[in-house]
Amino acid sequence: MSKKTYATAIRDVIAEEMRRDENVFVMGEDIELLGGIFGCTRDLYKEFGTDRIRNTPISEAAMVGAGVGAACAGMRPIVELMYMDFTLVAADQIINQAAKTRYIFGGKAKIPLVIRGQQGIGRGNAATHSQSLETIFMHFPGIKVACPSNAADAAGLLRTAIRDDNPVMFFEHKALYASKFEVPDDPDFCVPFGKAEIKRTGKDVTIVGSLLYVSRALEAAAELEKIGIDAEVIDPRTMVPFDMDTIIESVKKTGKLVVVHEAHKVAGWGAEVVSEVVDGAFKYLDAAPIHLGAKACPLPFNIELENAVVPSVQQIVEAAKKVCYR
Amino acid sequence: MISKERKFWIYEIMNKIRYFELKALRLFEENKLRGSVHLYAGEEAVAAAVCSQLTDDDYITSTHRGHGHCIAKGAELDKAMAELMGKETGYCKGRSGSMHIADFTKGNLGANAIVGGGIPIATGAALAAKLQKNDKVAVSFFGDGASNEGTFHESLNLAAVWKLPIIFVCENNGFGISVPVAQSTSVENISDRAVGYGIPGVTIDGNDVFAVYEAFETAVKRAKSGDGPTLIECKTYRTLGHWTGDPQTYRDKKDVEMWRDTKDPIQLFKKRLVDAGDFTAAELDTVEEAAKAEADAAAEFAINSPNPDPADVMDDVFYEA
Ligand SMILES: Cc1ncc(C[n+]2csc(CCOP(=O)(O)OP(=O)(O)O)c2C)c(N)n1
Ligand SMILES: [Mg+2]
C-alpha cells in the first residue's frame, strides 16, 4: 500500500498501463508540458514521448471521435477532457458513435476507449464547468460509467476501464484530486465494475451516494450515530453496470433508503435506485425512500448559492431521520 | 482616419480595461476573488478599436477572457467587478463570475466559458439583423484555440453562404493555455482559414490600434453592404498567465518580457497620440489616473456589496411572464 492523492493514483495507473501495453495512449488538452490542469499526466511525456502523451487542439468532438476510430483500429485510447462538461461538445461522438458502433455493426467493432476527466462543484467554476453528468450517460446503452470516490477506487477502476474492451466514461471529481488514500501497489490491482462498496455497515438506514457524496454521506452517518441512528453507507462505484443487488440486500436489512447525488435530482440516477428498490424490496420498506439531488437550476458561481443548490450534509441527516420517523 | 474624439475614447477604454484587470489580479492574490479568472491585459487594442466602431445596437459575443470586450462594449467597472466577486450587484447577480458577463441592453450577448461557444451565437444575432433589415452588425471575439472548434468552422460557412453581417475577430495571443499555436493549428495564419469559406481573411498587428481599426472598418463596410462576413486575425500576446495563478512553465520568460516591455498596446498607442500632437502626455496621464481610480472604486463597490440571497437561487431558470 502507498498513500497517494487521487490525482497521483490516476497518473500512476496511466503510466503502468502504458508500460504494460503499447497500444494505450492518451490525448487531451494541455496534457504534455502542463500534465493536465490537475496533473493527471504530469511528466508522463518525458517517459512516453509526445506520440503517446499527445496534446490535442481544442476540438472535443474530433478528440473523442478520433478515440473511437483509433479504438476500432486496434489502439486503446484514453481521451482526457479538461472538464467533463465538454462531453456535451462531443456528445454525438459519445452517444451516437462510441455507444452504438458495436451494436449497429452487429458486434463487429470493439471499442476499448476511456473518456476521462473531472466534474462537479467546489472551485467556483459556475454553470458550464461544475455539472455532474454521470447520470445522463447512464441513459444510453453501450457505454460503461465509473465514478471513483477515493484514490484506491480511482486506481482500481481506471485500470479496469483501460483493460475493458468497451467504451468507458470515467468521471473524476475536481474536489477529490488532493485527497489522500491508501492505494494497493499491485500493478494488476483492479476494482471490478458493477460491484458496490459498503463504506460503513449499519442496521437502521441505507444511504447511497457516490463521488463527493460518499464522504458527505459518511459525515451524515457520524452525525446520525450521535442520535442513535446506525446508518449503512454504500458507494455504487460504477453507474453502468450498477450493482443494485448490494443496495437491495442492504434495504432488506434496514428497511429505509436515502439516495443522494450532486447531479440534478430530476431524472437523476437516484430515481432509478428508488425505483429498483421499490421493485426488489417493496415489502421490506418501512418508509417511502428519499431521493436527494441538486435543485433544478444551473450551478451558480457564488459559493453560498452553489451550496444552496446541492444537497448538504444536514439535508442527508434530516432525510435519514425522516425515514426513521425521528 | 480615426477622429480625435474616438482616439480619446479608445485610449480611455484601454486604460479602464488595464486597471480593471490589474485590480482583479490583486484581489485574486489577496483571496478576495475566486474561480477561473482570465485576464486580458496586453490585448486591449483589439477590444477597444473594434468596439469604438459599434453602437449599443450592434452585438458582440465574447469569451472566457471577456472582461476587455465587455468593458469596451459599455460594461460599468463596478458591476463587472461585483460579478467577479459573485455579488448581488454584479451583472449576473453573482450567478456567473468572471467568465459570463453580459449586458443585453448594450448589445453584449455575453462572455462564454465554453471555448468556441459564442461564435454561432454571434452568427445568429447577425442572422436576426439580416432578417430584421436593421443595419446592425455582430462581432464574435474568440481566441486562436477556439478556431479549432467545430463551431468556428460551421459558423464561418453558415455566415458566408447566408452573407450575414458579422465580423469574426480572432485574437491570436500565441497560446491556448500551454499549447503554442503552431502545435495545435494547421495554418500559418488563422486568417488563411477564410479561404476555405470564400470570405476575406486578414492578419494584422493586434497590438496596433490603428491596424485593428482599419481592418475592422473595412469589414463593417462589407457587412453592412450585404457582402457577408470577414475574418480578422489580430496577432497579439498574452503577457499574463492563462488564468490568475498560472505558473507559466511552458514558455520563455524573455518572450513575455519582450512583449510586455516593447509591444504594450497602450504604450504604443500613447506614443502615437503624443507624437502626432493629438494629446499631450500629461493629458493622457490624467486618463490613466482616472482609470486607476475607477478600478479602485469598483473594487470597493464590489467588496461592500451584499452576497445574493440563496433563497432566490431558483429565480431566472425560466422566463415567467
Ligand atoms: C469547449 C471547451 N474546451 C476547453 C476549455 C478549457 N479552456 C478554457 S480556455 C482554453 C484555451 C483557449 O485558448 P484560446 O481560444 O486561444 O483563448 P485564450 O485563452 O488564449 O485567450 C481552454 C482549452 C473550455 N473552456 N471549453
Ligand atoms: Mg489564445
CATH superfamily of chain B: Thiamin diphosphate (ThDP)-binding fold, Pyr/PP domains
CATH secondary-structure class of chain B = Alpha Beta
**Percent strand of chain B:** 5-15%
CATH C-level name of the largest domain in chain A: Alpha Beta
Computed CA radius of gyration of chain A, to the nearest angstrom = 20 Å
Number of domains of chain A: 2
Mean pLDDT of chain B: 97
> Helix content range of the residues of chain A, please?
25-40%
Question: What structural category arises from helix and sheet content of chain A?
Answer: alpha/beta
Tell me roughly what share of residues is in helical segments of chain B: 40-55%
Q: What is the tally of helical segments of chain B? A: 11
Spatial separation of the terminal alpha carbons of chain A: 41 Å
Identify every distinct bound molecule in the structure, by name, code or SMILES: thiamine diphosphate, magnesium ion
Provide the CATH superfamily of the largest domain in chain A. Answer: Thiamin diphosphate (ThDP)-binding fold, Pyr/PP domains
Which of globular, elongated, flat, extended, rod-shaped describes the shape of chain B?
A: globular
Oligomer state of the chains in this structure: heterodimer
SSE order of chain A, one letter for each helix or strand: EHEHEHEHHEHEHEEEEHEEHEHEHH
CATH architecture identity of the largest domain in chain A = 3-Layer(aba) Sandwich
Elements of chain B, N to C (H/E): HHEHHHEHEEEHEHEHHH
